[in-house]
Prior knowledge:
Strand order of the largest sheet: 9-8-7-6-10-11-12
Bound molecules: glutamic acid
Number of strands: 12
Structural class: alpha/beta
Largest sheet: 7 strands, mixed
Oligomer: single chain
Shape: globular
Amino acid sequence: MNVQNIMTNLEAKHxxxxxxxxxxxxxxxxxxxxxNQHPEFEKAKIVERMVEPDRVFTFRVAWxxxxxxxxxxxxxxxxxxxxxxxxxxxxxxxxxxxxxxxxFLGFEQTFKNALTTLPMGxxxxxxxxxxxxxxxxxxxxxxxxxxxxxxxxxGPDTDVPAGDVxxxxxxxxxxxxxxxxxxxxxxTGVLTGKGSxxxxxxxxxxxxxxxxxxxxxxxxxxxGKDIKGLTIALSGFGNVAWxxxxxxxxxxxxVVAISGPDGVCEIPGGITKEMIDYMLEMRASxxxxxxxxxxxxxxATKFTAGKKAWSVKCDIALPCAFxxxxxxxxxxxxxxxxxxxxxxxxNMGCTPxxxxxxxSNGILFAPGKAVNAGGVATSGxxxxxxxxxxxxxxxxVDDKLHFIMESIHEACVKYGTQPDGKIDYVKGANIAGFxxxxxxxxxxxxx
Length: 447
Ligand code: GLU
């Protein structure tokens, strides 16, 4: 494989799909050496096939807002790669959603899902619908209209959507309600992230954040460190950031900053249980303002408009919000302030330049597809429970999640250990995920 040739072809075929091209380049550059040791991959054109989604659905979503006005959005589902199992991945509702973003996320999801050790292919979907400022009734009508179009293309053994940015338990509930009406069956395995009284797995809401902290613990142990007493800055206050803040605090670390699109909220004494609970209210309000935290807890916090969490002094940075949310300048600022570890919790949260800056300065860095895989892994556990019509206790799910995150860390170490003994977690995650999908594609022939 010649990465440059493949990228030139891909750029010509998909001009302007910048996030997608960025994600592909990152993976190809890190697998190139291993790939070229396998002539059978080259002969079967594995990479050329792997960078094209199996199929993509786009559809119109028309709905009526609270003022009685008709609104039109675009809906998508990208079924990226089904080599190792049914398509699996979240739905993102955000005003910036477009095909490039969902192709990048579906591509990343393919490798992430392979890392979980569970049989799940990669998929992603969503809409350019903007939940900010929408009423609960508007969210419900949009979710129903979205599912009206999508339902025939999904199923427990076909494609299993879940949440992502802008889609949490409430949205999954509204979508499932419409699904069961249209399909005329109570088929819980069609979506994950459901409520725990109707087929959802206990701990699924917390799983991405919890898993990220379990992975971080393993990474720190491997480096001879302990998480207790360390300071953490994180971005976002959605589901993922909430789970990460909860587990970090439980493990004895101190979350000293959270941020939002409007600025950063510093919490010098560390985030408290009350503040963590309040994050849930902030997300449900659809206001998307971190300043609300400072307004609610004025004595313990300080809000600065226009600043990111990466301007705050901390040991560990945890980007938990959106792709490319931590750039080269942010990485330099963090390093100058003494940060020595960054675990990417958001999908592709760091720009390639930021990753390069971390790695060339000896900062411990791990990529999203390994760090945040606990979310989709627990979705996989939810699928198993649904298929068997059983439900596991919190301890059973947590033990399995622990085990999966440990396995992912081990896979990164296995494939990412360099001749000098250092671990390149980016390479490790990409190669481990790639090898599994490539082998399955090879064995299944040209299709
Ligand atoms: N959206 C999450 C992710 O990026 C979860 C996907 C799922 O649970 O299917 O992995």
